[in-house]
Protein 1
Amino acid sequence: MIIVKDPVCGMMVPVNGELIVLHQGQPFRFCSELCKTAFLKAPEKYLAGRAAGAHHNHETRRIAYFSMED
């Protein structure tokens, strides 16, 4: 299976996924509707980072960890 990076969050997604947007003749694939919507609102924001070698904006990305331990 061939995978590519979601330009918004950096998550790896399969090429044959359903969430695809053609922008300036180039296909972009997304892991979720949320990422797809964010890209459609401001594609230049994510394409600029891609050209500079950045994969996503760490300032706006949040990760939560949960533990079942007491």
Protein 2
Amino acid sequence: MIDIRQEFNSELQYRFPNVFRHKEYVGVGPGWWDIIRNLSSELEAIIEKLPEEERLSLYVVQIKEKFGGLRFYMNAETDEMFDLITKAEEESLKICEECGKEGAQFCGIGWIKTFCESCRKIERK
């Protein structure tokens, strides 16, 4: 049985081959997947326009959650790419990582997460 996160990783590698040149595991919940899809589409368009030798050095190395926000790390990036990544990371602070609804940051003992009220209630149980 294939994990939905594995399916998402496969989708990203298929749709955005320049951005996801290497197999990387997306370690965030499905609520942020649309943010990642939109960002990846914009990054792919930028990378496709570059000379091949430049394209090879611009790829994702890690996607994770840290301090309640999306972190999208690339091997290298242009200023335009940096701005898009920053915007996506900021957007994630207002979107529930689990369901994609409007959310806010919540602190627990040793953690900060971005949840909607419903997902926060589930997390606290």
Protein 3
Amino acid sequence: MNRKETEQAIEAELSRYTNIQYSIEQGGKHPRVVVSCGDKRRKVPISGTPSDHRALLNKIADIRRAVREVSS
């Protein structure tokens, strides 16, 4: 899976949440997803090139945790 496919999967996951704003930014070495709700904000780094077959699933789990944190 390449970076574009990873970003598409992350965007599909985040589109499920109506009260969450997000953006994908290029960081220093790695891209990152910035998730925000109101004044709470969380940055989640993502890999440009996933290393194993569970990398995307693990990253989506990290993003779901970030969504829970900012929406609570």
Protein 4
Amino acid sequence: MTLAAIDWGQLFELVWVSAVAGFLVSLTFSGLILGVAKAEEHRQRARHAVASAYAVVAVISGLVFVGGVVFAISVIVS
């Protein structure tokens, strides 16, 4: 294999897209875990408004995470 056969533009695109995707997947899953843990903590202390806000963070993060996984699988399959 020669160096001329490598498409450096596509290789660079693969590297930066995978780095961004990995960061976003980690960020959304961390938001899910944080939201669930903090919601439960505040619910135990009878801070229902704050617990509800963290529950919303957990739901939104979970939906974004699942959406990203579904999108990634659809890209891989097609």
